[in-house]
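Continuing the series of single-chain predictions for the mutant panel. This is the parent chain; the variants come on the following pages.
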Amino acid sequence: MAPRFFVYPGYKSVEDEPKIRQMIYKGLKELETEIRKRMLNSDNVEELGRALKAVNMIAVKVKSPSGKISSKKDIEQIDAVIFDKMNTMLSALSSKDYGLLLSAVSELEKLVTRRNSLFS
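Parent structure:
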């Protein structure tokens, strides 16, 4: 099965942020589902379990920001990299490269923290 890739739509205005945040959240939930599927047929349950827990915590963080965006340019750049990391995670899952998966999850967590810091 070829993995589905996440396409970053870009921002026309800051009003697009809730829609893009929802796309990130749905993407993370899809990644959770893929990780769970891999856990059923894998010897690497520990690595996958750590990734699953981290992705779940990141999804919660994505839903949590409140306030207004302080910089459209910054959030555009961060969101583009977030979509790239989600695609890296899909690729890592399909190639069973769980080291790359955990690395991408760690980087994604930092990006979401930076993303949330842009709200005031």
